[in-house]
């Protein structure tokens, strides 16, 4: 992980940049366009969006106006809960790429587990075989939900994008994904701003002469997670990328890990999909 363009290699050989630019809650068109263009100008080459974010068109406009060649960008979108099912997913994909102004995605994710996830996955497999998606994966899946999906899957998930921050580490899920060669990715790494109140992180910020955001993003990377911070402020977008010139000690990583208390700031996947069959280890 030498710089902003450093990447991990997914199970099928596709290169995915470790650091991406998130767009959740970037809903105002001009703000989205300007933020994504700024990120691409700084050097980000991984852009994460979703149909649910209602900003795919703006993201597509920003990519076009940036003049960065499409093939240099790792572009991610997701199929929403209400669009799941085989035929509906195929239609949702067509809608997404039309809005994004592209003819393929680098990664397409099932946004949340659902009763229709196996049918949805079959649609993703079809699109992958047709080379319209370079890699397929999931978001917010627990161990049991992954096992349920993988029972009948022909192609295994390449990525699981989950809520991950110092208060929610999910060690069992991390171990499972690593054993199954599923790349982990963190959403909301900064706990929607709550990390800035944690004293340990304030202390580490002083020790390393880095911001708390930079400490956490570096922690994400050293824990083996792709990370996708979001900002609309140009200097913060740049600051979030300035994390490749230092390294946290194992001792400090363990201190951050000790903050884990299973606290979610987003939805609980088990409550999103309460009827999924529990599959024993």
Structural summary, described in words:
It contains 11 helices and 10 strands. It is an alpha/beta fold and 281 residues long. The chain has one domain (7-272): Alpha-Beta Barrel (TIM Barrel), CATH 3.20.20.100. The protein has an 8-stranded parallel sheet with strand order 3-4-5-6-7-8-9-10. It has a two-stranded antiparallel ribbon with strand order 1-2. A hairpin with a 5-residue loop joins β1 (7-9) and β2. The longest helix has 15 residues, at 86-100. It is globular, with a radius of gyration of 18 Å. Mean pLDDT is 95; it is low at 275-281.
Which characteristics define this entry?
281 residues, 11 helices, single chain, eight-stranded parallel β-sheet, TIM Barrel, 10 strands, globular, disordered C terminus, alpha/beta
Total count of strands? 10
The CATH class label is: Alpha Beta
Number of helices in the DSSP assignment: 11
First and last CA, distance: 34 Å
CATH superfamily: NADP-dependent oxidoreductase domain
Helix-strand category: alpha/beta
Low-confidence runs (pLDDT<50, min 5 residues)? 275-281
CATH-defined architecture: Alpha-Beta Barrel
């Amino acid at each position: 992980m030498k710089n902003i363009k450093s990447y991990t290699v997914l199970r099928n050989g596709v290169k995915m940049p470790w650091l991406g630019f998130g767009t959740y809650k970037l809903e105002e068109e001009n703000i989205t366009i300007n933020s994504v263009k700024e990120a691409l100008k700084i050097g980000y080459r991984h852009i994460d969006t979703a149909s649910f974010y209602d900003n795919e068109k703006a993201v597509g406009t920003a990519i076009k106006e940036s003049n960065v060649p499409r093939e240099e960008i790792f572009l991610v979108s997701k199929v929403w809960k209400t669009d799941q099912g085989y035929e509906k997913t195929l239609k949702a994909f067509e809608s997404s790429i039309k809005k994004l102004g592209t003819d393929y995605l680098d990664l397409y994710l099932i946004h949340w587990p659902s009763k229709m996830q196996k049918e949805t996955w079959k649609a993703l497999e079809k699109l992958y075989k047709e080379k319209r998606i370079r890699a397929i994966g999931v978001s917010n899946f627990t161990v049991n939900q992954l096992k349920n999906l993988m029972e009948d899957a022909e192609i295994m998930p390449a990525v699981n994008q989950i809520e991950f921050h110092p208060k929610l580490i999910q060690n069992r899920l991390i171990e499972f994904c690593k054993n199954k060669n599923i790349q982990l990715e963190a959403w909301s790494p900064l706990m929607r701003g709550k990390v800035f109140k944690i004293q340990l992180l304030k202390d580490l910020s002083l020790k390393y002469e880095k911001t708390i955001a930079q400490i956490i993003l570096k922690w994400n990377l050293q824990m083996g997670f792709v990370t996708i911070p979001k900002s609309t402020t140009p200097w913060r977008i740049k600051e979030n990328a300035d994390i490749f010139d230092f390294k946290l000690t194992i001792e400090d990583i363990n201190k951050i890990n000790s903050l884990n208390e299973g606290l979610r700031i987003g939805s609980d996947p088990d409550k999103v999909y309460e009827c999924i069959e529990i599959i024993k280890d």
